[in-house]
Every structure is written in C-alpha cells, then in structure tokens.
C-alpha cells in the first residue's frame, strides 16, 4: 500500500545555519488520523511547510501518495496536501462562501458542473450548505473555520493538514468541528497543543522536539506518560483525567 505521506531522513536548516529538522522519519497510511505534538519551537510548522514545497529540505525526501515533493510536481503536490491554517481569514477572501470554496478547485482547472458539485459536496461535508451565498464576514468563528476546511476539501486532497484547529473556538464550536472532522473519510495530520483534542480525534500521535521525532505511538499511551510530557513541555489541562 502506498503511503499517504512518506518522510525519510528529513533535515532542514535556515539560511543562517540554524537546524530546524533533524533526521525526521514519518509514514502515514491512507485513512490514518495522526496528531503532531510538541512545544513551541519544536519544528512542527517548519515540518508542515516541507509537505507542499514551501520550504525545501536540506536533506532527505518527502512523498505524498508516492509523488516526490519536487519542483516539477508542486502544482499536483499542493492539490494533494490540503493545509487548513490556524486563522480562517488567511483562506477566506471572496465575497461569498460559495466563491471561496470554488476558488481552489477552479485554480486547479475544475470547471462547470464538476466545480459546482465539488463546492456543494464540500459544504455539505462540513455542515455549511445553507450558508453558501453568505459573506464569510458574517459567519461566526467556528463557521469560518468549517468553511476554510471546505475550501480544502473541494480540492480532494490526499492528506488533510490542520494547524491548531481548535484554537480560539468556544466549546460548542470546538465540539462541532470535532464532529465534522470525525465524519470525514480522509487521511489527517493535525498540528496541535490541545492534547484532549488530539486524544478525541487522533488514535496516533507523534511528538516532535528540537527538530526530532521523540515519540510515536497510540495517543492515549503517550498522554499517559507523565515523564514524556514533562520532558517536552507538554501538559494536560488541570483536572483532565484519561478515562
């Protein structure tokens, strides 16, 4: 089976020579939901930016659905790697929700009835079909987050990458987004500091610190390891107990 994501020996250093990633190996199979955990400055965002070619590795390889992340392949790679940013306003800029969701697939050459069907299906997947003709500016924060998700789903990505999806959401919006994500039949990589959200959504977690993978296993097992969490500046909320 071809991996949705295959990362081998990935190194990255910034132009001043500062190392950010050191020998990262990671395989995510189709349909897996994986949380990427780690303290600030661990290299999580730098890692994500390797997946669609925004940053180029110093050494090592990245492949998405078997396709290497290289310059000649970048248009297709950027369709296959759907990144939902932490701030929905980074992705929503058109006058209506429908136009925002259509923008991505149209940019990849989808037109006519297929484009309409993609937009309708993506909005239905995130429970926002009734808001297609509204301005994103008139939606709540949770609704905008789900529309931003729909803009990516409409491109039919190989892997869905979420950057801190629960940040700045009230409890109801947080739950609604979780329910939406659990319904999706998609390979998912979620970057988060929200450990209970990782437990709720992702059976597997990977802990990154100082540019290295330091743990990879069942989320519940990793969160039950107090020494591991303490060593890498991760902490469950006060009073939270693993069931």
From TrEMBL:
Compartments reported by the entry: Cell membrane
Broad class of where this protein is predominantly found: membrane
Domain ABC transporter, chain residue ranges per copy: 5-235
Superkingdom of origin: Bacteria
Keywords (A to Z) from UniProt: ATP-binding, Cell membrane, Hydrolase, Membrane, Nucleotide-binding, Translocase, Transport
SMART domains listed in its UniProt record: AAA
This enzyme's EC code(s): 3.6.3.28
Gene3D superfamilies, per database record: P-loop containing nucleotide triphosphate hydrolases
InterPro entries hit by this protein: AAA+_ATPase (IPR003593), ABC_transporter-like_ATP-bd (IPR003439), ABC_transporter-like_CS (IPR017871), ABC_transpr_CbiO/EcfA_su (IPR015856), ECF_ABC_transporter_ATP-bd (IPR050095), P-loop_NTPase (IPR027417)
SUPFAM superfamilies for the chain: P-loop containing nucleoside triphosphate hydrolases
GO molecular function, one term: ATP binding
Enzyme class: hydrolase
One GO CC term, this protein: ATP-binding cassette (ABC) transporter complex
Keyword Lyase: no
Record carries keyword DNA-binding: no
One Pfam family, short name: ABC_tran
PANTHER family for this protein: ENERGY-COUPLING FACTOR TRANSPORTER ATP-BINDING PROTEIN ECFA1, HEAVY METAL TRANSPORTER
Family named by the database record: Belongs to the ABC transporter superfamily.
UniProt-recorded name of the protein: Cobalt ABC transporter, ATPase subunit
